[in-house]
Design a protein that fits this description.
Oligomer: homodimer
Strand order of the largest sheet of chain A: 1-2
Structural class of chain A: mainly alpha
Radius of gyration of chain A: 20 Å
Helix content of chain A: 55-70%
Keywords (chains A, B): DNA-binding, Transcription, Transcription regulation
Protein name (chains A, B): Winged helix-turn-helix transcriptional regulator
Number of strands of chain A: 2
DNA sequence: CTGTATCCGCCCGGATACTG
DNA sequence: CAGTATCCGGGCGGATACAG
């Protein structure tokens, strides 16, 4: 019984994680969402904030994020085109995910920094 | 000041997320970890549990997971080779990440199921 | 059983040029 | 500014065969 329970739990967990990764997985989606957490941004602003992303990829990611209900795209002017991307309320539901991931990432970075220094006994650098 | 603070917070968050995604990002790593949460598993067992992964990719992912300290690889027999993969204590630090991600994934799946049904008024199909 | 080596097709994504 | 179109090279990853 306990084994079955574990197996079922695992299956459900795998399915849930699968669903999550399907919409917020990949290299950029979470970064874009984080970049928008400090307020709405325009296209080039986003590209500057999310370091390393190309216009082509950013464009595609923004479309998917909009389709999945995480952001809204608003055109504010036509002459010089001004477009603004903003997080929706639904993206607030990612708060726990983002918080735990940021927290873990910071912890892991610290752990790496600490464990990589003591290579040499004379490693008294920096 | 508040703006600067936001910008710095965003940068730190982006860096942290970047570190996290670097080691647990991608299509498979979290699924493998979840598959091992119900106990240690062998290679083929893992391949059966983590649906869709090929031997080649599973092998590579396991190596990276081991290098990054999430799992241990133990050889139990040589004649018919028996290898066991097991989560390390360090992978326990991912608990919050996995919990929030599973929770969100389940919520999202439910939301999708609810919002996708009412397409047609006659949509009473299977 | 637990992988690895090789081949290879396909797609991701960079670069560039272009449009509205 | 906010993208899009096209080209194109590298690499991801499947299939298969093979090794220990």
């Amino acid at each position: 019984m306990e084994l079955d329970h574990s197996v079922e739990t695992c299956s459900g967990a795998l399915a849930a994680i699968g669903d999550a990764l399907y919409v917020i997985g990949g290299k950029w989606k979470l970064r874009i969402i984080i970049a928008l957490q400090s307020g709405s941004k325009r296209f080039n602003e986003l590209q500057r904030t999310v370091t390393g992303i190309s216009a082509r990829v950013l464009s595609n990611e923004l479309k998917e994020l909009e389709i999945n209900g995480f952001i809204t795209r608003t055109v504010h002017a036509q002459v010089p085109v001004v477009v603004e991307y903003e997080l929706t309320e639904y993206s607030d539901t990612l708060e726990d995910v983002l918080t735990s991931l940021k927290k873990w990432g910071a912890m892991h970075r610290q752990k790496i920094r600490n464990s990589l220094q003591p290579i040499s006994t004379e490693a008294r650098s920096s």
